[in-house]
Amino acid sequence: MKHKKNLPNIICFCFTIYFSLTFFSCNNTVPSQSQLCMGTVCSINLYEDGTQTLYDKMFQRLKDIENLFSTNLENSQISKINQAAGKNPVTVHPEVLLVLEKACQIAEITSGAFEPSIGPLVTLWNIGSETPILPSTEKIKERLPLIDYKKIQLDFENNTVFLPQTHMALDLGGIVKGYAADQLAKIATQEGVKKALFDLGGNVYAFGKKEKNQPWRVGIKNPLNPRDEPILIVPVENKSVVTSGGYERFFVQDDIYYHHILDSKTGYPSEKDILSSTIIFENSMVADALSTAIFVLGAKEGFDLLNKLSVDGIIITKNKEILATKNLIPIIELWAKDFVVIQ
Question: How far apart are CA 338 and CA 15, in angstroms?
Answer without folding.
Answer: 22
